[in-house]
Amino acid sequence: MAGLEVLYTCVSGSIDSAQDAVVCLVHWEVIKSGYRCLGGGDQPSSSDKKSELLPADWSSNKELYTLRYKDCDSNTNLLLKAITVDSTLIFNLMSSSTQQVSDLTVNISDHVDAGQLHSFDSVFKDADILSERVKTQLLPARARASGSKAEKKTHRWEDEEAEEEARQRRRDADNDPLRIPNRRPHHVAPPHWPGPMVPPFAAGGADLDPFGSHGAGGMIVDPLRSGYPRSGFDPTQGFPDILPPGAVPPGARFDPFGPVGRPGPDPDHMPPPGYDDMFM
Length: 280
What we know:
Layout: H1 4-10, H2 18-32, E1 35-40, E2 64-71, E3 77-85, E4 88-95, E5 101-107, H3 108-111, H4 120-123, H5 127-138, H6 141-174
Antiparallel strand pairs: 1-2, 2-3, 3-4, 4-5
């Protein structure tokens, strides 16, 4: 109900009955929906001007209230009439563009305390309920949509303000000299975890396959297939004075023994110390 108190205070000098207070609230709901008041009476006059306030003679007739409104964004006009019948107010609202008429019946004593007309804080018993009835039963659909759009815009602005405050708090936290920094540097990539389909107990499985038959690991090293450069010999051809040709089947694992492909000791090399010691 933001703005209703300001309006009520401005026109409090003209409010001397409970129905005046109800008309003031209904007028403010029309204003919030995107319309401006042109004046009173059924016919336009030269003094008409768009205003959020009520015209000077709006409460001169307690039996019949007549107010005219104009849309802020189009040429649509609204004609609002409130008729006093005993303790109720019957509102009729007609749109000039569609010629549609809506109505609302308000029991005055249910919404206004007649003894508190000059105290805004206590004059309305349930302003929110009456406001909701005006928006859903009296105002045209376009006006309700305008009000909803304004509310959505307000909520969007509040969300953006909350996001900006959150970003500012993060910036303040990063610049706080007393803040304990993150243990993991930002440039370090997170650890790689295996996919959920990988068996959880597969770690070390390659060591259980010593021959590497599944293509992953193995514990027996074949020097001829270890990935290092070969010495340039073929074990299937045999080794002079060591193995005859064919002793090693083709494709078999073979661990060379001795200095394969290298000559024996040179007799001209310096003999080891004590070589002529019979007890050596």
